[in-house]
Amino acid sequence: MFLESQGVPFLSIGNPALLDLTFVGIFASVKCPARLILAAHDAANEISAQGKAVIGGFQSPVEKEMLEVFLRGASPIVICPARGLEGMRIPVAWRQKNDKRQLLVISPFPATIKRPTYETVIERNRLVVNLASELLVVHAEPGGKVEALVKEVASSGKKVQRLSGFYP
Fold this sequence. Notes:
Layout: E1 2-5, E2 8-14, E3 23-27, H1 34-49, E4 53-56, H2 61-72, E5 77-79, H3 92-99, E6 103-107, H4 118-131, E7 134-137, H5 145-154, E8 159-162, E9 165-166
Parallel strand pairs: 3-4, 3-7, 4-5, 5-6, 7-8
Antiparallel strand pairs: 1-2, 2-6, 8-9
Helix pairs in contact: 1-2, 4-5
């Protein structure tokens, strides 16, 4: 299905009504300290128990772990792959959420984008930030894409929480 939000056109699979919810955007760099992995799991359980809606790319290992928690819990989920959706099949693990109309997969990318690239990840992350009302950053690797995004967002006044406190 073709949708538009905040002037950004995208394709979708799942329940487009989820876009009316307030989201916690989930971010974690690919490299994440081991001490934060358990904290991320605990945070995902807490968010899920509260039934808060979540949005993210769920691409890094920690984000994937958190997605597994969200899939088992009460949270509505919006997944934003950094590639086109054409030909994409809903993974078996996502189907129960999709059947309950608690899942939406969205992408602004055309069918020609079959794999994530540096550029599509950055664009996807900006889409997540724009749709989220607040961000939870598990870890931002110094010098990485997530750190650059967090610095950009923090200056905008949007609430950005990390597991060990708040970004300025």
